[in-house]
Amino acid sequence: MKISLVYKLILSSVFLVLISVGVVGWVFYVKTTEILVNKALKSIAHEVRDAGNSLQKIVNADDENVLFLASTQALQGMIHERLHTGHVNRNSEWFTRLEGIFESLLKKKSKYKKIRFIDRKGQELISVYRSDAGIESAREDLLQNKTHRAYVYETLKLPVGKVYLSPINLNREYGEVQIPYQEVFRVATPVYDELTNLLSGLIVITFDIGQELRAIQKRASSRGDSVIYITNDRGGYLVHPDQKKNYGFDLDKRYRLQEDIPQLAEHFLPASTIKNITLMPEDTSGNDVVNLTKIAFDRNHPQRFITVVVTQDYDTIVAEASTLLNEIVYWALILAFGGVCLAVVFSIRITRPLQQMRNAINSYSSGSSHLVSLPITSSDEFGVLAKSFNLMIQQVELSQARLEEMNLNLESRVIDRTKDLNNARLEAENANKAKSEFLSRMSHELRTPMNAILGFGQLLELDIGNFTLTQRDNVREILDAGHHLLSLINEVLDLARIESGKLELFMGEVNVNDVVKQSAALIVPLAESRHITLMDNVSAKELVVRADITRFKQVLVNFLSNAVKYNREYGHIIVDCDVITEGFLRIQITDTGEGLTEEEMTKLFIPFERLNEANNVEGTGIGLVISKHLVELMNGTIGVESIPGKGSCFWLELALTSGA
Amino acid sequence: MTLTKWYFVFTFMILFINHNLSASEFKIAVRAHNGIDDAFIQWQSTVDFLNIQLTAHNFTLIPIVSLNEISQRVAMNEFDLILTNPSSFIEINKRSGVKALVTLNNKRANSALSHFGSVIFTHAKNTDILTIKDLKDKKLMAVSEQAFGGWRVAWLEMLIQGFDPYMKLEKLLFAKSRIHSEVVYAVRDQKVDAGVVRTDSLERMEDRGEIDMRYFRIINNKDIKGFPFFLSTPLYPEWVLAYSKSLPVDIIKKTRRILLSIYPETKAAREGIYMGWVEPRDYESVNLLMEKLNVGPYAKQ
Questions:
Q1: Under CATH, what is the fold of the domain B2-113+238-298?
Q2: Could you report the predicted ipTM of this complex, rounded to two decimals?
Q3: Is the pTM of this model over 0.90?
């Protein structure tokens, strides 16, 4: 399916818009969730820490108060009095003063439940407490023995000036938990007799911490959806949404945080140093984020702490993010729609110039218009492109015109040149024809008188006995010159005929032996006149080649006569034959002349080039040229090898007949 | 049948007369789940109380750690009274015909308890063990294979929750000493991943200062109203004092009356750390448990 560019652009922009909106939205959602969770936890931790600090402030003041009480003069006085009298005089000045101090402190500190002095055997000696009726001092018969209470025996182990801080629990009287429950802890310090330095007992302030715990709970509940637990350092609940679980450790019930939030159990181990930890649920959906903060309620007793645990449903925390996500999605869709509209507009705007350009190119390439020009509507890439396009079209047009002009020129020049060439060819042909005509006519015209001359010369020769010696010589000169001239004319005629292609050959099987013999016979007289020995190594062999016998003989005679002419006196001529090239017979004539140089050898077969003109040897200079032509016409080859000073060897090769 | 009956009546008469005539020796076997020494400390006062109340007779305490040994020796009629756990009782009840005389009214956390169960617990650091099913491929130690609160109650609870400890645990171990503290220490020292002891074992050790409860976390924690201890299972009736056929009828009546008269402040109760004794509870639930577990009298041969 063909999708137009506009749709492609629209589709891809829509795709891009949706993807980016989606990605941005998602990242935003995740980040927001993270921020919200962190914020929720941080605010809780912050609140809890603040609550812890205010608790610490209050409790620290208690340390000072209990130490102050332990060192009052009234207490020391009472101790001495008791030491001397053996009992406590509840009407003595010291006792009354001490009661007064206890009372005024209780008045000042609304959180103080009770202030007591207990002797080292655990017996309460004085106990001032807050009741519904006001501040009262316990009657003598209501004073109890507290030997087995941890705060008593633990405090009595301490040196002077040290403070014991009890865990938080429910107040007991006579071993029974008091109803309504009083959430208390005790601050105690040992009392030593200043004179004897002996341990005499302890001062205990019972502190009502219920209000403080509520305050912490309230602050930690700053987010309405969180659940708060406050436990002691052993995990026992002090504050639990289900109130029956509070103070289970005092009420023979086993309610602990460890069992309810198992992942926090390890942070209650004695060795745990974790002060604050937040645990994210592994599977967030429907589970709680848990934060644990330990508050040491007295700076001086970091081992005595309470633990505030806040749990919040993860989904609730991120619900805000979900609302936000809905909004994001809503806006994203609007944005996406806007994006799509823009994409459509832009796509059309982008593709319109392209459309125009395509139309222009189409009309141009179809040849329907040569005057194509695009409107330049903008200065952007499309404007530049249109400008370039227009420029390109102009350039193409210009080039086209130039090309056509050049084409036209070229044609006229070719016609002219062809005409010239034709003329030249005709001229040359005419010249050649004229040359051949001239030659043949010349030969003919020359031969006729020549034959007359020779004829009459021979007639004269018949009467040679009647002539003087001089006359005889003259006649012979005439005949020799005439024969020479005739052979010259014949040679020239031959060449003319060969060159004009008028030479006819009569190919047949030729006995080499016969031809060599006949040719040699023709040469022998001339050779003998120069005392040259001719050695015929061919005659004995029965060899047959394909050739025109007359022309073959002509070539051989030419070779042999050259061998005689250019030989030295008393030299040798060897005629030999051999098969060098497969299927061809090479006949070679070797002389013992002066030989030829390389340069000379190249000139051998050029018409009218005669070597050693100074030698005064007769010749037209076309013998070898003719020979070459003839041998080649007989489908043979001709050649020469020579060593200067030693002699030359001329050879020709002709095809052996199969019968040979 | 008639003959046996007559024989029984005859023997009974002889014994009855005999006991009225002279002092007799009665042996009380006690399951010593915390060791022989502890058993003497805990139960000698109760035996003394019987001896004081029934001066004509002499009751002797025989602590036995092994439940198997109890079963075997009961079958050989060696004891007259047997104080043992409920499953052990069902076993000797089915095999040797012993009957429940009284049920122990245990003193726990200042309240009287005639029921108990098992507690399954792990080390506080084992954050990966949240439920019984998380015990898969873990090491678990229980008190002994015959222990009731120390194993069988927990075992049934596991089965009910679809967890067969014999199949799914990496290792199931039993305390070599057959006493509860060994299991507790093994978990505390992380030699095993989890442990099973009878309810109140942990709390007792904590009270004695032997352990710090912060090291432990209870698995399958159950909250049963009025039950003051950590608990992972349903509750079953407490230990039972059973009597064998050898105990004369008047002694049965007398001992029951004497034991029911013990109140919390009695020395026997104080030293025995219990509140007293109550009319025998219904042990059918224990019987059913053993049937389901195929143990004791229901063991497959």
A1: D-Maltodextrin-Binding Protein; domain 2 (3.40.190)
A2: 0.76
A3: no
